């Protein structure tokens, strides 16, 4: 028989090149939307657009980036991770190059918003999937290291954007960005199909002999788990809370730079604010992940998450107090700490409330619902700013959604936990009934006509005194080990059926002794 080819090693060798590619991918995709706020004012001037109209551009990009997950999963299963990453890089590059030639703000929605957002989604999610094939033992470490790419992107993209904007204008900057995002294709080329330990490649099953209606139904059932949403109260509360939270979560990223510029902060220094958020994230996010992984917080990560969301909402009031650059730096530091907690705990909490065998289905519905509020949140707030001509409403709005979401999730999970404890306490433990009662059959076979064995009155009195010593408030006092041994010598208990409250109490006294010793 021909020998099968040896499996390619996991957790070593080429796997570390794949990890490096994943770091680059996350910096190019998830980190990219952080720089869009720097172009906000220039795009308004170019297209004579309102705050609401301009904010649709980053909203569409971020919403598609989060909500395109089920489509990316289908693509990965059909063609593999490498194809999905390279296709995403191509779409991202084409979208940004096309946006540099836009003549209206609506064209920008299609090019930089939809096409670039969809390409970023494909590259990011397929890259994370590839890590799962290449890493087994060090998978947690690999995912943590790959997530540092997001923080690096948050730090570097705003600085590069401001420099290119000052030197070349926004059109040429978008053209250069298209070339930079094409590097996702280079990262995809590194992610060659992984060979698993049994010699088989990562599975890419094809749909065969299925009608279109059956295939669509199975796909919806697999990636949009509405049954989990209806039956799992924890998942229901968490999904509603995060969806509501996203209405205000993205607002500071979109409007912070325009707000600072409007209040007299220099454009270069205003761009630095976003970089501060990313730089703090590099250090705080891994620490938050390590802290939340401690056994003390097992099953209680939702409360840490709610606390981070609450801190994020309260920090917005700092911007309302003052718009000086030093105050905004303090705001960015506090906001970054809160964001690090949210970013590190979002999917950990989801894993806590959903079984792992249904996690992918729960994640699909979760990301689609949150993408809807990510899409409509900034434009609605921009409309409010257009009506009032006051940027303070951005931070009022953000605080309202974040604080209300934090209180809703924290209090709801607390009430759900108490309800579950009451249910468990009300259940009668019937797993082992012999622990709570004696067998009514005697230890030695006896006929029904036989009378109970004769009992020595002195011995019975001694036994009752051991079972029911005097104690305050009717609570049975504790007996010593020697007394317990003496008590167990009596066979009278084993032959008398439970017919009275006195016998029932004796039974529980013996059970308590057995548990105590």
From TrEMBL:
Its main location: membrane. It is a multi-pass membrane protein. The keyword Cytoplasm does not apply. It is found in: Membrane. GO terms for cellular component: basolateral plasma membrane. Keywords: Membrane, Transmembrane, Transmembrane helix. Residues 444-453 have a biased composition (Low complexity). Residues 15-422 form the Major facilitator superfamily (MFS) profile domain. One of its GO terms (molecular function) is monocarboxylic acid transmembrane transporter activity. It holds the Pfam family MFS_1. The chain crosses the membrane at residues 14-40, 56-76, 83-101, 107-134, 141-160, 172-191, 237-258, 270-290, 302-322, 328-350, 362-381, 393-416. Coiled coil: none annotated. Residues 433-456 are annotated as: Disordered. This is Solute carrier family 16 member 5. It comes from Aquila chrysaetos chrysaetos.
């Amino acid at each position: 028989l021909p020998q099968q080819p040896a499996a390619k090693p996991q957790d070593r060798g080429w796997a570390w090149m794949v990890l490096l590619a994943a770091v680059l991918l996350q910096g190019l995709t998830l980190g990219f939307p952080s720089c869009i706020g720097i172009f906000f004012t220039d795009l308004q001037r170019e297209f004579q657009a309102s705050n609401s109209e301009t904010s649709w551009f980053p909203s569409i990009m971020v919403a598609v980036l989060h909500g395109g997950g089920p489509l990316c999963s289908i693509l990965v299963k059909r063609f593999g991770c490498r194809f999905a990453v390279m296709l995403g890089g191509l779409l991202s590059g084409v979208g940004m190059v096309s946006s540099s030639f836009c003549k209206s703000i609506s064209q920008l929605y299609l090019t930089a918003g939809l096409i670039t957002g969809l390409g970023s989604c494909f590259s990011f999610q397929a890259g994370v999937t590839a890590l799962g094939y290449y890493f087994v033992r060090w998978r947690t470490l690999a995912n943590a290291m790959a997530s540092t790419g997001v923080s690096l992107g948050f730090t570097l993209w705003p600085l590069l954007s401001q420099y290119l904007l000052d030197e070349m204008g926004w059109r040429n900057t978008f053209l250069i960005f298209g070339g930079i995002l094409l590097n996702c294709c280079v990262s995809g080329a590194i992610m060659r199909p992984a060979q698993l330990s049994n010699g088989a490649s990562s599975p890419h099953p094809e749909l065969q002999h299925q009608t279109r209606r059956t295939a669509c139904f199975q796909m919806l059932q697999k990636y949009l788990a509405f049954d989990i949403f209806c039956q799992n109260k924890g998942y229901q509360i968490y999904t509603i809370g995060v969806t509501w939270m996203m209405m205000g979560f993205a607002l500071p990223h979109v409007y912070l730079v325009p707000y600072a510029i409007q209040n007299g902060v220099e454009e270069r220094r205003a761009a630095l604010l976003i970089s501060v958020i990313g730089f703090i994230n590099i250090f705080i996010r891994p620490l938050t992940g390590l802290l939340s992984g401690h056994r003390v917080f097992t099953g209680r990560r939702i409360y840490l998450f709610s606390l981070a969301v609450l801190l994020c909402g309260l920090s917005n009031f700092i911007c309302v107090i003052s718009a000086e650059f030093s105050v905004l730096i303090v705001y960015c530091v506090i906001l970054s700490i809160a964001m690090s907690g949210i970013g590190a705990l979002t999917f950990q909490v989801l894993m806590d409330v959903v079984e792992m065998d249904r996690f992918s289905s729960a994640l699909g519905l979760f990301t689609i619902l949150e993408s809807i509020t990510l899409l409509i949140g900034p434009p609605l707030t921009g409309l409010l700013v257009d009506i009032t001509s006051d940027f303070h409403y951005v931070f009022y709005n953000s605080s309202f959604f974040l604080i209300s979401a934090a209180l809703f999730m924290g209090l709801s999970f607390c009430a759900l936990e108490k309800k579950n404890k009451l249910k468990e306490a009300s259940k009668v433990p019937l797993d082992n009934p012999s622990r709570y009662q004696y067998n009514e059959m005697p230890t030695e076979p006896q006929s029904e006509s036989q009378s109970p064995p004769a009992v020595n009155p002195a011995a019975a009195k001694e036994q009752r005194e051991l079972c029911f010593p005097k104690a305050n408030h009717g609570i049975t006092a504790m007996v010593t080990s020697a007394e317990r041994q003496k008590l167990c010598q009596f066979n009278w208990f084993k032959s008398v059926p439970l017919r009275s409250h006195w016998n029932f109490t004796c039974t529980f006294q013996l059970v308590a002794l057995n548990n105590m010793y």
